[in-house]
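Task 17 of the worksheet. Students: predict the tertiary structure of the chain below and write it out as structure tokens. Keep your answer in the requested format; marks are given for formatting as well as content.
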Amino acid sequence: MIKQVLRTIASPIMLLAFLLPITGTAHAQTVTAVPKLDAGKFIGTWYALARYPIKREKHCLSDDVVLYALGDKRDSFQVVTSCQIKDGNSDFWNDKGKLSKTGDGSLKLSRIWPFTTKYWILATGPAYEWALVGTPNHRSLWVLSKSTVVTPEALAAIEARAAAQGFNTAKLVRILQHN
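Model answer:
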């Protein structure tokens, strides 16, 4: 009797466990990193103009700035993110990253060793004046710019690039940047 109950419960669970990786993989395959990342042009100060709402940044109200700097080891970099929170105060946090050995835009970031998260540079402007950064699982997305503003047409074109890779641009939250 117990074996039959276990079989009845286990069958749907095993089927679900089998199907989840298939559906997750199909969705993630639509995301591609830029084929060649010029790290020298990417390094620097970026202003987040829009992003998906994520737990780490939910308290950020404005002036979300991300600084990418080369690290002291080969293919490594440092990331410092800061933002304005309530009462005019600021918050900031640091991450360590690794550039892809293949030279494409797939990066790995770590806040706490040994855990890493994949972040991909999905698209950049011709002169690296803007960048679209996201995760291959479609859970996070940022629109970054080297300046605090971009034209509405440029922003629409960047969002179209995100949508082409399967991101829901309706989830993007605009971030106020003070000049």
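Marker's comment: The chain is about 25% helix and 35% strand. The mean pLDDT is 85.
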